[in-house]
Amino acid sequence: MLISSSSFLLQLLLHALLVSAWFVCCNASASSPTTVTSPVPPPQMPQGNSSDHMALLTFRSSIASDPLGPLSSWNGSSHFCQWHGVTCARRHDADRVIELDLHSLALSGLVHTSIANLTFLESFDLFNNSFHGHIPEEFGHNLLRLRHLDLSMNSLEGEIPPSLGNLSYLQVLDLARNQLTGSIPPQLGSITTMEKICVYKNNLRGSVPHSLGNLTALTVLDLSYNNLTGVIPPSIGKLRNLTSFNAEVNGLTGTVPSSLYNLSSLVVLALGSNQLSGSLPPNFGVSLPSLQNLSMYGNHFYGPIPSSISNASSLLSIQMLANGFSGVIPPTLGTIKNLSYLQLEDNFLEAKHDHDWRFITSLANCTRLAKLILRNNRLEGVLPQAISNLSRGLDTFLLSHNRISGNIPNGIGDLVGLAFLSLRDNLFSGAIPTTIGKLQNIVRLDFSQNQLSGKLPSSICNLPHLNLLLLEMNHLTGAIPPCFGNLQNLWGLDISDNNLSGSIPKELTSIPVLSVLNLFQNSLSGALPLEVDHLKNLNKMDVSNNHFSGVIPNSLGDCQQLANLNIGGNNFIGVIPPSFNKLRGLESLDISRNNLSGNIPNFLQDFSNLNDLNLSFNNFDGETPKGGVFQNASRISILGNPKLCGGILELHLQPCFGGESKSSYGHALLTTIITSLGAVVWIIFAILCIISLRFSKRKTFPSMVRSKEMFSRVTYSQLFRATEGFSLCNLIGTGSFGDVYKGKMDATITNCKSVAVKVINLQQHGASKSFTRECEALKGIRHRNLVKILTSCSSLDFHGNEFKALVLELMQNGSLEQWLHPAPKDDKYCQKHLSLAERVNIATDVAFAIGYLHSHNFKPIVHCDLKPSNVLLDDNMTAHVSDFGLARFLPNKDDSKNPTNSLAFKGSIGYVAPGKST
Ligand SMILES: *[C@@H]1O[C@H](CO)[C@@H](O)[C@H](O)[C@H]1NC(C)=O
Ligand SMILES: *[C@@H]1O[C@H](CO)[C@@H](O)[C@H](O)[C@H]1NC(C)=O
Ligand SMILES: *[C@@H]1O[C@H](CO)[C@@H](O)[C@H](O)[C@H]1NC(C)=O
Ligand SMILES: *[C@@H]1O[C@H](CO)[C@@H](O)[C@H](O)[C@H]1NC(C)=O
Ligand SMILES: *[C@@H]1O[C@H](CO)[C@@H](O)[C@H](O)[C@H]1NC(C)=O
Ligand SMILES: *[C@@H]1O[C@H](CO)[C@@H](O)[C@H](O)[C@H]1NC(C)=O
Ligand SMILES: *[C@@H]1O[C@H](CO)[C@@H](O)[C@H](O)[C@H]1NC(C)=O
């Protein structure tokens, strides 16, 4: 032990050295100037207007950072009309700037008022930079020739200047994705040339001005993701050329003006997530021949969905979920040939008689149907065989939470494109059709909470991508087919609460990714397979209330990812295996109602995450520990073990007397020697740490979150609410794999109120993999210098697209990058500099984290992307390493015979190690 701990110290020192070296390098690279500030000679070119020249120079001087360097061409050696992004034209015998296009150049700084002196400017584009500050009011007074103004995707604040209403030639006004506040100025309604207004993703409030109805040339009006209130002005219905009206995610109230439903030019009508109400007119859709996207989700609409909706025959996507729609689903939807998303879940839609299901027959004509989501309605009766004629491209078919009865049609097997199929919580009976073996693309199959009977069909074993198989709460009988071991991608298996019998086939232990195994409430018997230790990712196992017998296999202690273990209500005998000592991540352990005996092992009191321990109704004897979880009588249950003694007073046990049986005395002596030896080592280690580190007070290991919920974790809508609709003002960072938002969550979902939500950009190649890697890497590890995952979300968003996010602890002090290379607007970081002591502390923290990852985790992990932006600082300036998107597990020594894939290029340029990593 001494030897291993001193080698650990050595490693720590090495890591600290490496990290500090890395620091010095970082600092060196930071000190190389990023902004060029060479003196500028006075203007020499006579034909250029000197006022324009001055204005450009003043604008440039207000730009604080130009990392890509395009503005270095803005100097005296060339005429300003040749400068990057500048376009001139001859006006009144002088070259005047008519266009300034600086989009996507990573510029930051203020939008200087001097731009207003470019009086001939027609087009100004700063899209996708980091400009901050206000939009100068002078634009509206001087830039009277402006046609195109695009300031979107910056960090602009303040209000939209009403003076912009003077720009009487303006055609495009794009201010989206900023942090603008205040209301939309009614003055914009006087710009009759206006064709496009985009102000989505700001913090605008107030109502939508009536005057916008004067903009007869308007084609696009996008007001989504703001905080607009009041009604939709009926005048909008006068905009005969409007193709896109998007008001999603605001606080709009009232009914939708019927004129809006008559705008035949509309291609996009998006009203989702407001507080709109009313019913749809009987001729809805008749005057919307071009409509492609209809979004009405999350409002208070009610009444039937008119059949006339099928006259809107260009529709691609119908999202009417989460309203109060009732009546039957129109049987004419099939005329919408290209319909690909039909989302009607969370309404009161009915099907009582067979002919109410005709919509399924009709939908067979929609050959591009990809998502059909009808969950949580009032559908009853028998699911028609005609489902087999639905599009082969259907990938999501969710009918859960209805009252559908009868057999599951055999034809379900013909929907070979299905990835997600859920019939959960219905009244389906009969056997599971063997034809589901044809669903070669299925990822999640959920038939739980029905009245299915018969055996588990072995055709399930042919589903190579199956990730989640949920069949709980049915009346299934027979044994678990051994061929379930073929399901090599199975992450979760829940067949609890059925009438299954037989033993657990040992083949089940050959599924490397199996993480959740729920078999409780069946009639399963036999012993637990000894090979259970092959399930290296097992996180939750519940086999309670069965007839299992024999001893608890010692090998179970090698499932070191286990957080929840329940083997209660069986016939297990023997002792709690000593190997359980290794299950340090346990959060709950239930071994109640068995015939277990022996002592309660003392190591249980050292499990810092254990907060739920049930040992009741066994034959345990000896002294009850008093530390750890045993300190709190409400977290443990030891009832029905008459031979136990000691423990804390609240347990009301007999006091223990000295005379213990000899065998347990010897055992105790050994344990005492080992623990005291361990204690000595730890004391030495602690002293060394204290001396070599600092005297500052740091947080101790915070306890892991208890996730009672198994599969659902946290839902999209919870995250949507927590981040205020993924509002831009909550955006705190953008990484290669997606955006990070700060958010406030209900403390019952996570222990923290403030969290960081990392939304994985699934469009990005490899992002899904990165999510899995990060989950995998962070799942089993706990260290105070690593950012903790609180929970995760893997579901569908309001548009039915796949959505994955991680919920992490929010680090109040941002990233180390922000401290080392502060962006000018981050005032907080400009004020302060890191002291030497803080730098050393951060370096040691990072070293601890990396040391832990490399040497003290059960499987060494290489981070692969360690850089200042991935080191986050909490309130106490304690560093936490984050972003495990590229992390890799190193092969164990015994795996080394089959070397893993050669390392492709991974990491950030400037931080990857040169040459091949080991
Ligand atoms: C790091 O760089 C900054 C600015 O580039 C400088 O002010 C600071 O003194 C440097 N610190 C160290 C430890 O070199
Ligand atoms: C430059 O433009 C300004 C403003 O339009 C004007 O007052 C000035 O006379 C112009 N100068 C030249 C040299 O054209
Ligand atoms: C803009 O024009 C005004 C009035 O012509 C002048 O006073 C001011 O200095 C100019 N600003 C710049 C930056 O050129
Ligand atoms: C613009 O709209 C407002 C309100 O709808 C109306 O009172 C006003 O007369 C309109 N102005 C013009 C120029 O059409
Ligand atoms: C509406 O669009 C049509 C066709 O693009 C165009 O001819 C007409 O001028 C537009 N109306 C207005 C008021 O701009
Ligand atoms: C939106 O407005 C309402 C009412 O004015 C206010 O309570 C709420 O906090 C606002 N939300 C945001 C995100 O600004
Ligand atoms: C669907 O197509 C069939 C023929 O392929 C046709 O008879 C039926 O009327 C169509 N239904 C709808 C609703 O378009």
TrEMBL record:
Enzyme class: transferase
Source organism: Colocasia esculenta
InterPro entries to which the protein is assigned, alphabetical: Kinase-like_dom_sf (IPR011009), Leu-rich_rpt (IPR001611), Leu-rich_rpt_typical-subtyp (IPR003591), LRR_dom_sf (IPR032675), LRR_N_plant-typ (IPR013210), LRR_R13L4/SHOC2-like (IPR055414), Plant_receptor-like_S/T_kinase (IPR051809), Prot_kinase_dom (IPR000719)
Domain Protein kinase: residue ranges: 726-918
Its EC number(s): 2.7.11.1
GO cellular component: plasma membrane
Keywords carried by this UniProt record: ATP-binding, Cell membrane, Glycoprotein, Kinase, Leucine-rich repeat, Membrane, Nucleotide-binding, Repeat, Serine/threonine-protein kinase, Signal, Transferase, Transmembrane, Transmembrane helix
Keyword Repeat tagged: yes
Protein's UniProt name: non-specific serine/threonine protein kinase
Annotated signal sequence range: 1-21
Annotated GO MF terms: ATP binding; protein serine/threonine kinase activity
SMART domains: LRR_SD22, LRR_TYP, S_TKc
Gene3D superfamilies in the record: Ribonuclease Inhibitor, Transferase(Phosphotransferase) domain 1
Keyword Isomerase: no
Transmembrane annotation, as ranges: 665-691
Family: Belongs to the protein kinase superfamily. Ser/Thr protein kinase family.
UniProt topology in membrane: Single-pass membrane protein
Sites where the protein binds ATP: 758
Subcellular location: Cell membrane
